[in-house]
Amino acid sequence: MEKVLQFLKEAGTYYLATVEGDQPRVRPFGTINLFDGKLYIQTGKSKNVSKQIHANPKVEISAFKDGEWIRIACELVEDDRREARASMLDAYPNLRAMYSEDDGNTEVLYMKDAVATFASFTAAPEIVKF
C-alpha cells in the first residue's frame, strides 16, 4: 500500500473512473491520504462523482509517471468520521479554501478490496492487493 501511496503522490494527478448508467465517467483527482491504515480520496458530496460512487462504488484509478503507470481497481467506502475528513484537509490545506470537516459537503472515501497493478513497457507487471 505504501508503494501505491507514494506513486500517486509523486504522479500528482490521477484519473478516477466511475459509471453513470451505462456511460463511463473519468476525471482528474489529486488527493490521496493514508489514514487509519487505509488509502483515502476526497470529493464533495454535491458533485456528480459522489453520486456516481454511491450508486456504484466500484471504481478504477489510473496514473502515469516516469514511463510507468498504475491501475487500481477497488470499491470506495465513505468514512463519515470527522477525524478522517480533518486528516485529509490537514494533508491538503489548500482545500480548506473550499472545504471544511464540518461543512456537510466534504466527503472522504477509502479504498476497499483494492488491486493495484504497476506496469511499464520494460518490466513485468507487479500486483499489490490491500
Brief summary:
Helices cover 22% and strands 48% of the residues.
The CATH class name reads Mainly Beta
**CATH topology, what is it called?**
Pnp Oxidase, Chain A
> Which percent band covers the strand fraction?
over 45%
Instruction: Spell the H/E element sequence.
Output: HEEEEHEEHEE
Helix share, percent: 10-25%
**Count of DSSP-assigned helices:** 3
Low-confidence stretches: none
Shape: globular
Tell me the CATH architecture.
Roll
Distance between the termini: 6 Å
CATH superfamily: Electron Transport, Fmn-binding Protein, Chain A
Q: Whole-number radius of gyration?
A: 14 Å
Mean pLDDT: 98
Oligomeric state of the chains present here: single chain
- Total discrete domains: 1
Task: Describe the SSE topology.
Blueprint: H1 2-11, E1 14-20, E2 23-29, E3 33-35, E4 38-44, H2 48-55, E5 58-65, E6 68-78, H3 82-91, E7 106-120, E8 126-129
Antiparallel strand pairs: 1-2, 1-5, 3-4, 4-7, 5-6, 6-7, 7-8
What does this structure look like?
Helices cover 22% and strands 48% of the residues. Strands 1, 2, 3, 4, 5, 6, 7 and 8 form an eight-stranded antiparallel beta sheet that branches. The chain has a single domain, classed as Pnp Oxidase, Chain A, CATH 2.30.110. It has 130 residues and is α+β, with helices and mostly antiparallel strands. The N and C termini lie close together (6 Å).
